[in-house]
Design brief:
heterodimer; A: about 450 residues; alpha/beta; Aspartate Aminotransferase, domain 2; seven-stranded mixed beta sheet; three-stranded antiparallel beta sheet; 12 strands; about 40% helix; B: about 500 residues; five-stranded antiparallel beta sheet; globular
Amino acid sequence: SEVQVPLGVPCNGLASRPGCVPFPLRPYGVKKPYKEVIDICWGDAHSGGTKPLTFVRQVIAVCIYPELLQETTIAPDVKERARRLLRECPGGSVGKYCVCGIPFVQDGVCEFISKRDGGVPISPLHTGSPVQFVLKLLVHGKGLAQTGVLTPIPCYPTFVMGLTELGAAMVPYYLCEDDGWCLHVEELRRALATSRSHCNPRILYVINPGNPTGHVQSRESIEEVIRFAAEEELFIFADEVYQDMMYAEGSQFVSYKKVLFEMGPQYSNTVELASFHSVSKGIMGECGLRCGYVELVNLDPSVKQSVTSAFNTERNTAVIGQIALNIMVDPPKPGDPSYPTFSQETVEALPGTSFQAGSGGIYAYLRLDLPQKALLQAKEEGTDPDLMYCSRLLEEEGVCLVVGKEHGQQEGTYHIRICIGTTSTRLKEVLRRLKSFHLRFLNEFS
Amino acid sequence: FEVCQPALWKMTENCFMHHRTKVLTIDTMNPNVKKVEYAVRGPIVQRAVQIEKELKAGAKKPFSEVIRANIGDAHAMGQRPITFFRQVLALCSYPELLEGNEFPEDAKERARRILQACGGGSIGAYSASQGIECVRQDVARYIQERDGGIPCNPDNIYLSTGASDAIVTILKLLVCGEGRNRTGVMIPIPQYPLYSAALADLGAVQIEYYLDEENCWSLDVSELRRALVAAQQHCSPRALCIINPGNPTGQVQSRQCIEDVIRFAAEEHLFLMADEVYQDNVYAEGCEFHSFKKVLFEMGPEYSDTVELVSFHSTSKCYMGECGFRGGYMEVINMDPDVKVQLTKLVSVRLCPPVPGQALLDVVVNPPRPGEPSFNTYIKERTSTLQVLAEKAWLTEEVFNTVPGITCNPVQGAMYSFPRISLPERAIQQAKEKGQAPDMFYCMKLLEETGICLVPGSGFGQREGTYHFRMTILPPTDKLKIVLEKVKQFHQSFTQQYS
């Protein structure tokens, strides 16, 4: 098939998840120094032990089974929200197909975006995989005409796999590790220039806050990127799914759209921007519900009809996901009966401040300084040093995390990615095991 | 010079604003996206939505509501969900309900089992890309029981976001080559436009085989052969898609027919794709659903060891009607092991199908058994839903066949009628002048005059010179009766108007 099936690390055991360290199959009953494997790969809050938000789940349950409207234990604001959502579903049922997303949910997203950014809201499109949806509109061509996508290194593996699947050329640009993983425009320029000899670069993909780096872009940096995109005629894809997860003092998330609109009409009327958000991360952590949205800014009028038609053929926007999305953009407010519980749970959902990695996002992306002997050993074993490190970590300590190689890294550097979106107890346990392993490892290869 | 400068700057600024061409224009867009059309939600639906807005704003029309008989969306048409399924899903969504007394024990047991298989005990966690393992096991068991004990390996089950997602995934694997070697995919005419849309999207060659309208839309292998031979001139036919029971035609394939198709696929080395999402929707006397897999295995190892088959099912149709949950699966049979590895990787790009849909699928294949507290209600609801659909199928066929100029084949199964309409020459002319397909012209007029939204046959494909529309049998019986009457009247006045 011409579908470029992407290289993923084949995975057994824990879950067939790309980028995960392969868990060698073992017979049951084998003795290990640990009782459970902690899978800390995945940006999956619930798997990591974070509890879903009560209000979200109550509304969903009532929407699914409206008989619960009679339940006295369920708060009035839950019922009111569920009733409202059900009213918006023709037939009053969440079993209905959604065309272009439930309008009521769409309106809520619009309002959310306006409040966040000011400026004119543009109808967002919800779908199960908004990034793929927009990529498909743009990506085509072969050889020199092949659409190129400027992609940050490091980046999360399934994005790169998605590019391969669609037949896009990945154009890597390296984030600057020594500078807190920030984006340097000169590096963008370099990447772009070299790419022109083998593809047609049209898309600039940025992740803010970063995955896996956790880096939060400053306003100045965003302006630079926008200016660069304007000069070089690139379509910006701003993946902002971690926008709710900000920890470091002084860090503030500002959306690409907001910055764009504050740069004046020369930019705000011309630069094409797709900005993405989803219910998978942040305080919601509802990855399994598969719902996100994209806001398309400054689309050429000639494509609007095609985009609408293409969107009308989308079939993966589950209604339950849209309900979660509605709550994400319009949560309980002070004064609402559910508010106290909601705000308390929201605070608990953020990881402990004892471990500061990036200033945002859900991961810690750690650099490993591996001794020379370890590098040689890896070579002998015919494997990559970070993969060897992680395999041993899994075997000896039962901690499963993502190998830096899957994110891309500068030649000769090694990293590991840990999802810190979990309870502080669990995180402490992970760090304890990691520390213990790391010291032994250094000792062995000193 | 100084006076000129500001003017120059302003001109440059304007030029800058106009000069910059957009990255995404109709010319630079992925050309395959432009080719995609999806009649079921196309222009007629967009107009229907507009009219609904106009009605809401108080516009006066000869009708008070738009009746959406265009899409196979049961709940939107008032079909009640199965209580047990909704109970289990509510419990999965908000597990605190497990502590209370509102729900029966069998619902709780299933919810607990599903949650145990989810990361962190939550349906909000990612699942394995192929789908939650215990759900796949339950699906395998269901298939095995359905097919009289023929073994089903859970490893061959891939859960998906509705059946559509799985169908597109398989097509992605199949499509390759250039020019004369470009993959050709055989699809029925009339067909469910997902197929033509997906083929356009992937740049595959569409090979059309006509179902036989004179013979209740049956499939004739000689027609398959004709289509194949013609196609071999300009592409490389690799796959054969069958929809059974059919959409939009509703025909239910006989066992003999299925055997013939399998033999044909074996001879011609074609990959079989069996879309069986309407497998419980069988109404007509003498008709029975036969799964492709079952027939394949009953044909002996010469076929069952070799013919590559994928069968698709979902939670959107049948008696469940839960389109919004996006639950579905495919079973792959005799797939090359190397390709299967690629398939497994391919599905991981989207991470996983929506977990609530997976949970729903689990309960659908694992419903209450005799003796369990919820069994009686479940059986009653299921039987009643299917019975009402059968009645409406028969009613639709009956009424349409009383209208001069409309002929309707028996609605043997699925959820639609696809009657043939004869259109006066003048109407056809006017349509052509407007640049519209004649049946689109007809359906648009019908919408404007009666508020009834149907899909023109041109959206599904039909023999040249014939016209049809697709209407769902889903509206509640009283409403359906009114709709049928109105269409009848409209057809008569339309015929008179354009004669």
